[in-house]
Amino acid sequence: MTAHIDLSKAGILAESSAVRVALLPPVARFSLRAATPEQKALSKALGITLPAKIGQCGRKGDIEIICLGPDEWTIIAPEDQAGMITDACAAIYAKTPHSLTEISDREVTVRITGPKASDLITIGCPRDLDQLPVGEARRTVFDGVTTVLWRDGDQDYRLDLWRSFAPHVIALLETGCGELAGE
Questions:
Q1: Where on the tree of life does the source sit, at the highest rank (predicted)?
Q2: Cβ–Cβ < 8 Å for 9, 170
Q3: pTM, whole model, 2 decimals?
Q4: For 77-98, how does the pLDDT look when each residue is reduced to its tens digit (9 = 90+)?
Q5: Nearest to residue 129, comparing CAs of 153, 165, 108?
Q6: Domain regions of the chain by residue span
Q7: In what order do the strands lie in the sheet containing 72-77?
Q8: 11-26+106-181 and 28-102 share one CATH topology?
Q9: What is the fold, at CATH topology level, of the domain defined by 11-26+106-181?
């Protein structure tokens, strides 16, 4: 059964001694596409080096950039910094063509933490989590839903997913949280 959840309210969705699942507050999100020659100028304009390796993350303050492909990044920042990002990219567009698209309303983020966080992720994600280094992220699937999985700590993950699939994924995570609590 799909859960009916207010995705506008951050907070704990499920919690046990094994794991906690929480919906994080909204953030500004951008999809950035650029060819290799433009990457250096974009890094300078944004004040953060665009990571070159797929899965690598760059961070400066509250802004994070993940490399999702050879010419594709997602930028995540506090909502009040969205204007700074769009202005920085717009200022160099004439000499540095690129595509910057705001996707803030498309996705939500669920944080999964606790001693059984990895176990909970594996109920829907086929990826070997031991191969995902702390501080990196990967595009993957969770029960057939395309997601981006961030590993922030040994048992600390973020799962970015499209808003339309969130109720399904959250329902699975809530059920899994309950099952892990019973072990």
A1: Bacteria
A2: no
A3: 0.91
A4: 999 999 999 999 999 999 999 9
A5: 153
A6: 11-26+106-181, 28-102
A7: 57-60, 63-69, 72-77, 28-33, 99-102
A8: no
A9: Gyrase A; domain 2 (3.30.1360)
| HSE toward the beta carbon, residue 157, CA cutoff 13 A | 28
Q: Which of 132, 105, 94 is nearest to 31 (CA)?
A: 105
**In 3D, which of 54, 64, 59 has the Cα closest to residue 29?**
64
Residue with tokens 């969205």: 82
User: What tokens does 13 get?
Assistant: 């969705």
- The pLDDT tens digits of the residues spanning 14-35 come to 999 999 999 999 999 999 999 9
Domain 28-102 has CATH 3.10.310.40: no
Q: Which tokens sit at 32?
A: 């950035």
Contact in structure between 113 and 17 (CB atoms under 8 Å) = no
Which two structure tokens, joined as six digits, stand for 116?
A: 């059984």
Distances (CA, A) of 147 to 90, 98, 102: 28, 24, 17
Lookup: tokens for 98: 């690129």
Task: Report residue 10's pLDDT band, with 50, 70 and 90 as the boundaries.
Answer: confident
Cα angle for residues 17, 18, 21 (degrees, 5° grid): 95
